[in-house]
Specification:
The chain is of the alpha/beta class. It is built from 8 helices and 11 strands.
Length: 227
C-alpha cells in the first residue's frame, strides 16, 4: 500500500483545514484526532495515528506571500527528529529553499504554482539538497510556467497536486497520475488531493503510486489510525 504522508496546512500560526485550494476561506482545523489547531500537537497526533516517517507542510502564508512559518517548522523538526518534514514555502527559486533547509533541515517542495527560476532544481541538486517538485493543477489546468511541467525538468519525486480535489472527498485524480507516470516512467509520482478512504489507497497501490498526501480522511476518521 502507498505510504501515508500526513499534510499540515499552516496559516496564521494555526493548522487549517484546506478545501479545494480556496485559501482565503481556510478555517482552523477541527479533528477527531485531537482538540485544537496547534501545529506541534497536530503533528504529534498525526504521527501517533500513522507512524509517519514523512510529513508534508504547506506554508499557506508563504505561498500567499503574507508571512511564513519557518520558526514553527524548525520547532517541529526539533520536537520530532524521527520525521522528515517536506515544506512547500511558496519558493520562487533556490535561494529561499536553501535558506529554509539550512535553518530547519526540512526538504524543500518546489510548487510549480510559485516557481519562477528554471534553474532552481539544478541549484538545489548541486548543493546536495534533496527536493521534490509539486506539479500543481486546478480543475485540470496546470499552474505555473510551462517549463516546470516539462518532464525533462522533473526530479526523481514529483507530486500530482490537484488543488480542486484537496479536502473535496472527490477521490484522487487517477487520470492525472497516469498521464504523469506515462511521461516519465522512471519518476516516482506521489498523489495529493481527494483521498477518501482505504479503497482509494488500494486503487492508488494498483496504479503504482508509492506514497499519498492525506489530511481530511485522517482528521475525519475515514482512514483508521495505525495499531
Amino acid at each position: 500500500m502507498p505510504e501515508l504522508i500526513p499534510v499540515i496546512d499552516l496559516m496564521g500560526g494555526h493548522v487549517v483545514h484546506a478545501r479545494r485550494g480556496d485559501r482565503q476561506a481556510y478555517q482552523p482545523l477541527q479533528s477527531r484526532l485531537l482538540a485544537g489547531s496547534d501545529p506541534v500537537e497536530v503533528a504529534g497526533a498525526l504521527i501517533g495515528a500513522t507512524s509517519a516517517r514523512h510529513i508534508y507542510i504547506a506554508d499557506i502564508d508563504a505561498i500567499r506571500a503574507t508571512g511564513h512559518h519557518q520558526a514553527v517548522v524548525a520547532g517541529l523538526a526539533v520536537r520530532y527528529p524521527q520525521v522528515e518534514f517536506w515544506v512547500d514555502g511558496g519558493f520562487s527559486g533556490a535561494t529561499e529553499a536553501l535558506a529554509l533547509h539550512a535553518a530547519t533541515g526540512a526538504v524543500p517542495v518546489l510548487g510549480s504554482e510559485s516557481l519562477r527560476d528554471p534553474g532552481a532544481l539544478a541549484a538545489l541538486s548541486a548543493a546536495g539538497v534533496p527536493a521534490l517538485l509539486s506539479l500543481d493543477y486546478r480543475a485540470g489546468a496546470p499552474l505555473g510556467p510551462d517549463w516546470a511541467h516539462a518532464p525533462s525538468a522533473w526530479p526523481q519525486r514529483v507530486i500530482a497536486m490537484e488543488l480542486a480535489r484537496v479536502g473535496s472527498d472527490g477521490g484522487p485524480d487517477l487520470a492525472l497520475i497516469a498521464r504523469l507516470k506515462a511521461q516519465r516512467p522512471d519518476v516516482a509520482v506521489l498523489a495529493a488531493g481527494g483521498v477518501r478512504d482505504a479503497s482509494d489507497l488500494t486503487v492508488l497501490d494498483a496504479a503504482g503510486v508509492p506514497a499519498v498526501l492525506v489530511a481530511s480522511a485522517l482528521h475525519e476518521g475515514r482512514l483508521a489510525p495505525a495499531r
